[in-house]
């Protein structure tokens, strides 16, 4: 179904970079395992942030928890993006027309927008709160949405191979 | 008009059927078949090795196993090289009419399991 994909994705699949990933006996499995490990790190960091906002670990200072977990989440996301790009490149023209991949890409965009909205709109309200303080409603909604989106992203990622 | 064109373009792109090469779900296990003939193209690549085989009815793209599993089971690159005669037992794709996924292949009277 290569002819259905936009030319840029066919070009990516035919690039030397993508060929090297396919032809190596260890690069593809390495990216595969790395993607899952980065996902575990990312999901953990995001869960810490979201659960704190939803009221877990109420005895901690929220801004402190968020700052530490945010660093881990950003680092892990970079790992996800790098390994994901490797896996995508190897079969770009096939994967880009995969309906589950499209759903996943849209959900990733939604997750990033939600995170951005949180940082821009809600972060300032949460920053001065002491341990034990109730969280603003907007923050809790954003956190619940974040958890739902990233779990759905992970589910889509695993499902790409079956559609 | 522009909006409508964009909509049609989006529809055209989305309508392209998917061609993921992993799970067995998109193959019709109820209708197994054997494709036997010379290998025309051989791609010993990840995530799955693929070969083109001139069967009695048409040229089939036969999806095999990842390179490391192929190698571990003795189905090295030379076994599925262009020009060799192969017999592949497997299942036709529900998505691509000329593709099948092999459960096992036989080359030179030696059978290699792909699952």
- Tally of contiguous helical segments of chain A: 7
Strand segment count of chain B: 6
Spans of chain B of at least 5 consecutive residues whose pLDDT stays below 50 are: 7-21
Largest sheet of chain A: none
Arithmetic mean pLDDT of chain B: 86
Keywords:
heterodimer; A: 163 residues; mainly alpha; B: 115 residues; alpha+beta; OB fold (Dihydrolipoamide Acetyltransferase, E2P); 5-stranded mixed barrel
Question: How does this structure look, described?
Answer:
The complex is a heterodimer of chains A (about 160) and B (about 120). By secondary structure, chain A is mainly α. Chain A has one domain (about 1-160). Chain A contains seven helices and no strands. Chain A has helices at about 5-15, 15-25, 25-55, 60-90, 90-95, 100-125, 135-160. In chain A, helix 2 packs across helix 4, helix 3 runs antiparallel to helix 4 (about 60-90) and helix 6 packs antiparallel against helix 7 (about 135-160). Chain A is elongated. Chain B is α+β, with helices and mostly antiparallel strands. Chain B has a single domain (about 1-115), classed as Nucleic acid-binding proteins (OB fold (Dihydrolipoamide Acetyltransferase, E2P)), CATH 2.40.50.140. Chain B has two helices and six strands; from the N terminus they run H-E-E-E-H-E-E-E. Chain B has helices at about 1-15, 65-70; strands at about 35-45, 50-55, 60-65, 85-90, 100-105, 110-115. Chain B has a five-stranded mixed beta barrel. In chain B, a hairpin with a 4-residue loop joins strand 2 and strand 3. Chains A and B meet through helix 2, helix 3 and helix 6 of A and helix 2 of B.
Task: Put the structure in a nutshell.
The complex is a heterodimer of chains A (163) and B (115). Chain A has 163 residues and is mainly α.
């Amino acid at each position: 179904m290569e002819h259905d994909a936009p030319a840029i994705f066919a070009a990516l699949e035919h690039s030397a970079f993508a060929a090297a990933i396919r032809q190596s006996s260890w690069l593809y499995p390495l990216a595969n395992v790395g993607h899952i490990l980065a996902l575990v790190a990312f999901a953990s960091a995001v869960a810490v942030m979201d659960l704190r906002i939803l009221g877990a670990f109420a005895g901690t200072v929220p801004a402190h928890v968020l700052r530490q977990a945010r660093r881990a989440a950003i680092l892990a996301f970079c790992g996800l993006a790098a390994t994901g790009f490797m896996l995508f490149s190897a079969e770009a023209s096939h994967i880009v027309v995969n309906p589950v991949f499209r759903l996943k890409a849209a959900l990733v965009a939604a997750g990033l927008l939600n995170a951005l909205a949180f940082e821009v709109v809600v972060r300032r309200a949460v920053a001065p709160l002491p341990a034990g303080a109730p969280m603003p409603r907007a923050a809790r909604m954003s956190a619940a949405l974040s958890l739902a989106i990233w779990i759905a992203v992970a589910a889509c990622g695993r499902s790409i191979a079956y559609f | 008009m522009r909006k409508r064109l964009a909509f049609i373009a989006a529809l055209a792109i989305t309508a392209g059927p998917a061609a993921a090469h992993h799970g067995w779900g998109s193959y019709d296990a109820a209708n197994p078949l054997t494709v036997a003939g010379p290998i025309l193209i051989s791609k010993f690549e990840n995530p799955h090795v693929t070969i083109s085989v001139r069967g009695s009815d048409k040229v089939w793209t036969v999806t095999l196993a990842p390179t490391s599993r192929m190698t571990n089971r003795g189905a090295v690159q030379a076994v599925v090289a262009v020009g060799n005669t192969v017999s592949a037992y497997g299942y036709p794709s529900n998505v691509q009419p000329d593709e099948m996924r092999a459960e096992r292949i036989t080359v030179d009277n030696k059978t290699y399991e792909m699952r």
